[in-house]
Amino acid sequence: MPIMNNLNFAKAETHVQRNPFVTAKNNLLNNLQHQLKSAEAMIAGEVYMVEKMRTVTENGEKLRKLVKRPMRHWYWRDSTGVVRFAVRVSNKRIELVKGKADVVVGKDTDLPSIIEQLIKAVEAGELDVEIEGVVNARNMK
């Protein structure tokens, strides 16, 4: 019996175009989850590392490997020692309120709850206008 008779065949499927807004929103949620884990690790006195596929050269050969690297934080201490947080979409800081892009967190221990609130806001669609603005600005270039 020929091998080809054992296979199931179908018509070619057309490629579905991804919606850039949905992609940006999903990436923002994913990045906020990483920021939350990073903030929790910072409070515990640890360093949160993310795994990325990188091309590395070993013994003269290029190989794709999973490499750990430190997370780039969206939070920092300002000149007065207060923790601040900025939301980024496509590596651009977005204004959460007209003219204001930073969330003043205060203490380190308050940071995870602030990030969780931002995650809920994104899931509820409260930042859709800001996300769409960044996506439209990027697509106009």
Query: Main beta sheet: strand number and arrangement?
Result: 3 strands, antiparallel
Compute the gyration radius: what is it?
21 Å
**What is the residue-averaged pLDDT?**
90
- What percentage of residues falls in helices of 4 or more residues? 25-40%
Strand content: 25-35%
For the largest beta sheet, what order do the strands appear in spatially?
Answer: 3-4-7
Structural shape? extended
Number of helices: 3
Instruction: Write down how many β-strands occur, each being a DSSP E stretch of 2 or more residues.
Output: 7
The structure class reads alpha+beta
- Taken in chain order, the helices and strands follow as HEEEEEEEHH
| Cα-to-Cα separation, first versus last residue | 57 Å
Can you tell me the residue ranges where pLDDT is under 50 for at least 5 consecutive residues?
A: none
